[in-house]
Amino acid sequence: MTIAVPTSRRTADHYRLPDVVRSEWTKFTSLRSSRWTLAGFVVTGVVLGVVISAVWASHWPHLSAHSRANWDPTNNTLAGLIPGYLVIPFLGVLMMSSEYGCGSIRSTFAAVPRRPLVLVAKAIVFGAVAFVVDEVVTFAAFLAGQKVMGAAPHATLGQPGVLRALVLSGAFLALMGLFGLGLGAIIRRSAWAIAAYAGLVLVLPMVLRAFPGNPWRFGPLIILGNSEAAVRILPGILSPWAGFAVMALYTAVALVAGGVLLVTRDA
After folding, report:
1. CA 145 to CA 154: how far, in whole Å?
2. pLDDT tens across 143-179, in order?
3. d(CA 241, CA 34)
4. Model-level pTM?
5. How far apart are CA 9 and CA 43, in angstroms?
6. Residue 158 vs residues 230, 234, 241: alpha-carbon distances, Å
7. Nearest Cα to Cα of residue 130 among 179, 183, 186, 188
8. Helix, strand or coil for residue 180?
């Protein structure tokens, strides 16, 4: 007589989203390069925000009346996030494309045949990590940067637009990282996906300046500038919330396209 032995191990077809999320979390956090890169961004972002705030504050006594009227200490401090414009999206690209590069994507898809589930799990893990790290850098740079303003006017969380600028800036960076993840799923090769990100985000808006109708104003970095602004909202550019919605649309398109290609292409 054969006795069935109960087992808690699941077959590939029975993996659920929480299982895949835990797997992707383990893969992401086990990489020292990811941990060190994020830690380096935290330190660099805060230090750069403090330095830029101090430099701008030193010019306060010499500013014209017009410049003082447009003084935005929140925007000045959040200039420390500039390294994140590249670091976070590049990590997003690598979270997907690195598995193709080393061939481990075959093992991933063998364990989880429902390929879109893998992309969703990666997006959840990376989006959550990026959002937390970005918000930590944003608020830490702001609080530290305001301390070195000296005699120049400084901002507080209770002032109009400040809290919105901080929250949107961190969330916007997380969306840029997920956009990079989508490009990694679409292109699969790290170098090409990173080049595509740089071309779309950095180069294309400059090219579009030559076209009528100001299409360049829909570039991610342009609308990010207004998301970071608490006082100096640029005219003719998308409002902070509209810009955030447009970046969310870019990200959704990249992730959906990546998900479709995961299903239709061989690993």
Report:
1. 9
2. 999 999 888 888 889 888 889 889 999 999 999 999 9
3. 30
4. 0.88
5. 42
6. 12, 22, 19
7. 179
8. helix
